[in-house]
Amino acid sequence: MLVYIAGSGAMGSTIGYHIQKNTDSEVILLDYWDDHIRKINENGLKVSGKVEDTIKIKAMKPEEADKKADLVVVMTKSMALESMMESIEDIIREDTQILCLLNGMGHERILEKFVDKNQINMGVTIWAAGLNAPGEIEITGKGTIDVQNIGGDEENGKKIADLLDKAGLGAKYDEDVMFAIWRKVMVNGTMNSMTSLMECTIGEFFESEESKEIVGELVKEFTEVGRAEGIKLDYEEMMAYILKSAEEAKDHYPSMYQDLIKRNRKTEIDFINGAVVEKGKNHNIATPYNKIVTQLIHAKEDIRGAK
């Protein structure tokens, strides 16, 4: 099987590493970072943290890919998904499967512009990894991946989950992956956005007096809109999960903080808090807390001149 990783930062390279290392599949990393591509092709992909290793693996720009894909794992930032799919259209066949593991919601609408719904597999992952330097990743924790084919092609969806599990990625086929996606979006919509606005760790925000009310109102909006979308969400259950997750990650600066505060990059807020605002409009459900959080993040991007 020929597997492309479309977007080979920390997480994309982690998934590519595991598949290349532990299965018979060929993996090609796609990215636009020249130094990253060059270092990988010259020295191999260097892995540290939970694993210490260096492997030979191909890396190139998306437009340079010319072999037809069996599987494409899309790992770009959400706002770059459409342009990435445009760049790799020529390697996608009618039987190519797409696996989307991006943060946030609504990516399936973009993917449906390029492939049939039965080629789309949505997933959610809780793997943790960082990019130390061009060609060098650090795997900081062992995680899981849940996968579901949203077009009814359960056979191919299960084949993808089996491949990822054999690769050591802790994958399983999930009959209700949208629940897992909504739950993760709620985690990101409370932790990522708020720590980016307040410029603090997860623990520092959740220890503040105002945090419980803010988080509670955000989760109420997510839960109400999710139910209207047909997702079985329980407010108390979601709150307990978020508070537990916050305690476990109390010393962590989430990816949105790292993008906006550390790297001065634009965020994925429109696919997280902004997504629930847009979905709320479709159901005539007001989402004032998520709306102001989205607006404040965009204002901060503008003030900082984020790219």
Automatic annotation (TrEMBL):
GO terms for cellular component: cytoplasm. Residues 3-150 form the Ketopantoate reductase N-terminal domain. Pfam families: ApbA, ApbA_C. One of its GO terms (molecular function) is 2-dehydropantoate 2-reductase activity. Its EC number is 1.1.1.169. Keywords: NADP, Oxidoreductase, Pantothenate biosynthesis. Catalyzes the NADPH-dependent reduction of ketopantoate into pantoic acid. This is 2-dehydropantoate 2-reductase. It comes from Anaerococcus prevotii ACS-065-V-Col13.
